[in-house]
Prior knowledge:
Layout: E1 3-6, H1 14-19, E2 44-48, H2 56-61, H3 87-94, E3 114-116, H4 133-152, H5 161-166, E4 168-172, H6 175-184, H7 187-210, E5 215-219, H8 228-233, H9 248-271, E6 276-280, H10 282-291, E7 299-304, E8 306-307, E9 326-329, E10 335-337, H11 345-356, E11 361-362
Parallel strand pairs: 2-3, 2-4, 4-5, 5-6, 7-10
Antiparallel strand pairs: 1-9, 6-11, 8-9
Amino acid sequence: MATTRGEGSFVPSLRTLSYYAVMLGLCLGLPSSAASRCKRKPVIFNFGDSNSDTGGFSAGLGINFTLPAGRAFFHEATGRLCDGRLTIDFLCESLNTSFLSPYLESLGPNFSNGANFAVAGAATIPRYQPFSLGVQLRQFLLFRSRSPLLLSRGHANLVGEDGFADALYTIDIGQNDLVIQFTTLPYSQVIGNILVFVEEIRFAIWSIYQSGGKNFWVHNTGPLGCLPNLLVTTAHDASDIDELGCLRSHNDAAREFNRRLQSLCEELRCQMKNATIVYIDVFAIKYDLIANHVEHGFENPLMACCGNGGPPYNYNPNITCGRSGYTVCNEASRHVNWDGVHYTEAANSFVATRILSSNYSTPPVAFDFFCNV
């Protein structure tokens, strides 16, 4: 792997970030899966962690990320833990709308097409710890109550009353909950606590629904057992390694979380009148990418592009991407993993393309359904 060396500002590890932070037919009718251009201005409100954080952590904590973060597309660091665009960025591009401004960004934000409440390191619990899902929810409810009033007073770049009702509410969280649990608890207890995480997501969706939201897009969590960061820092033996070289216990926990999250979506789909709740199997997309990486044009799926240590993982918790001594690959377009935790822009593009196909969605509706009804 060709590499270059450099130095940059501190990029926190996942663990550091974590602490900062059958039924379908019985329910309501669902929109068509046929793709079409938006008939009205798309508005998106996103909730989540670093997988969809477009700069909230950087703005909120005053951490100045530097290159090589952002090098592939923006050619400068933007607060994204990636070499370029995230999956949420590609989804916004598919609607011909601007990237989402972080809610915490005070320097020139534009909230006319929604806002991004996601913050790196966020989890569902504890509810009142910044920037948990519960805190993101309260930030949204404040934004929801203030925006129409401020618009009436002449402020620009905000969302009006109709925009909130017609918006898409995207949720992508849960990975950090599982990672944090595994640092101190055995597998059985981690599995036993999953219901608590899912109930926090239920609370968030219900709260948004009660405030007038009716369109929800829920991503499950990916195969965290395949992250170089965890493969290096988690004590394990050969029995815990699956056929792809990933941590079986962590991936099994992710599958159980996803099973319960899908069940939640099925329950809410029948309980919420006139609401559409779409569940996205991101785990299946990412697992396929890793399992069939050669077919998809990638190499070394368990090895970080930016890090230290070389094969097989190029991850060193003491010399992470951006710290003095790191190395970075020349062609991240062939790498799945960027920094040991987060995916490259190329991998995010792959994920977004599969999401937009509707083949991994339940129900199988097009991503732009909410701006075409």
